[in-house]
Design a protein that fits this description.
The chain is α/β, with parallel strands linked by helices and 391 residues long. The protein has twelve helices and 19 strands.
Length: 391
């Protein structure tokens, strides 16, 4: 069952502290909102993702989602005075879309999710979708198992029965037309979308939630989420190797840095053999092919192209999957020119393109002891290793 999703990110999140709302704070090196959006975008039957933000947070949202170049991600929508108003703004944005050759029609099912729940397991989403095949609404929840007490002034006063009580989570799912009509008829705030649905007479099924699907609320919740992410982290390593022969020319470009030499490198692009190796290492870490597949040498538009274009695409693909490049190591193999005097500039250039710290980039050189084509001075080889962490 295909679905659209709304991520509600218009709140202020003051209890979490920090200089910015909690959805824009960093969680294991990535903004919370980005993790939540990437989690939903990873679902194979999602068709549209609408993020609803506070009117003052446009720049924060842009920075948080920068690089998530997925056509399913809609431009952010400004929310209202309360959560119900914000969700209604997202619903109206979805129904305003008209399917055409460029935009897929919005499906009849929508999931509404809190931005501050970035660790939602796939099975929680799938259970909600399964329930929507039968009921007009679905709510992931966990049964209350602890004893409940009312109290005042720090003292327990009376027990309360816990039978039949559930801890509500998101995403809460609905048939789009039904929940839109319910929101249009509703006035004032509401605890969640199930409250609005029930007020409109909609049946809402309870599906299995998950303990890790908690809502980041207080400062200590970030530490809890980071511990869970450590257990789920997908660490990838990719390798790249490239070779280019020499030709007559005034020098070579390696890792984006011009190195004076009595020869140049031959290639369809600018023949930056080192940057090509790094690029292939990143594509390899993602298992997304290589430079030749993304930028075929048979296409004239890549003739003489700067290799920075290729490396930026590889970095973009990492970002699109909400990943992080944590380390790049490149070894350049040649008898000449001397690489050492230029290695720091090469590290800085790679770090700039990849938007990572310079201390996460290594560039070094070796010779082949005058053996083989590099030893005979016929060209330059390069090999690289890249480490990528995916959520």
């Amino acid at each position: 069952m295909q679905f659209a999703a709304i991520v509600v990110a218009a709140g202020r999140g003051l209890r979490a502290g920090g200089d910015v709302p909690k959805q824009y704070q960093m969680l294991a090196g990535m903004p919370v909102l980005r993790r939540t959006a990437a989690m939903l975008l990873a679902h194979p039957v999602l068709t549209h993702l609408c993020v609803v933000i506070h009117p003052e947070d446009s720049e924060l949202c842009h920075r948080a989602l920068h690089g998530l170049s997925d056509p399913r991600l809609m431009p952010p929508v400004c929310g209202g005075a309360n959560r119900a108003d914000s969700v209604r703004a997202g619903l109206e944005a979805l129904v305003a879309i008209r399917g055409d050759l460029l935009t897929a029609p919005v499906p009849g099912t929508v999931l509404i999710h809190d931005a501050a729940r970035p660790l939602t397991p796939r099975h929680v989403i799938d259970a909600v979708l399964d329930a929507l095949a039968i009921d007009p609404g679905a709510l992931p929840a966990l049964p209350v198992v602890d004893a409940l007490w009312s109290g005042s002034d720090g003292l327990a006063s009376a027990p309360r029965p816990r039978e039949g009580l559930w801890r509500a989570q998101t995403p809460q799912g609905f048939r789009l037309a039904d929940i839109l009509a319910a929101h249009r008829a509703h006035r004032g705030p509401a605890d969640d979308d199930v409250a609005i649905a029930r007020a409109a007479g909609l049946t809402v099924a309870i599906t299995a939630g998950a303990e890790e699907n908690f809502k980041i609320t207080a400062r200590e919740d970030f530490a809890r989420a980071e511990r869970l992410l450590e257990d789920k982290m997908d660490i990838r390593t990719g390798n790249g190797f490239d070779v280019h022969r020499f030709r007559d020319g005034p020098g070579v470009t390696l890792c984006g840095v011009h190195v004076p030499h009595d020869k140049a490198l031959e290639g369809h692009s600018d023949a930056d053999v080192a940057m090509h190796a790094v690029t292939d290492a990143l594509f390899g870490a993602l298992a997304e092919g290589d430079i030749g597949q993304w930028f075929p040498p048979s296409e004239a538009r890549w003739k003489g192209a700067a290799s920075q274009i290729f490396l930026e695409k590889a970095a973009e693909r990492v970002a699109a999957r909400a990943g992080r490049i944590t380390h790049v190591d490149c070894t350049i193999i040649c008898e000449a020119p001397k690489i050492g005097p230029h290695a720091e500039a090469m590290r800085a250039r790679l770090a700039q393109i990849l938007q990572i710290e310079k201390d996460r980039v290594s560039v070094k050189a070796t010779t082949s002891e005058r053996l083989g084509f590099t030893g005979r001075g016929e060209g330059i080889a390069a090999m690289a290793t890249a480490t990528v962490v995916l959520p």
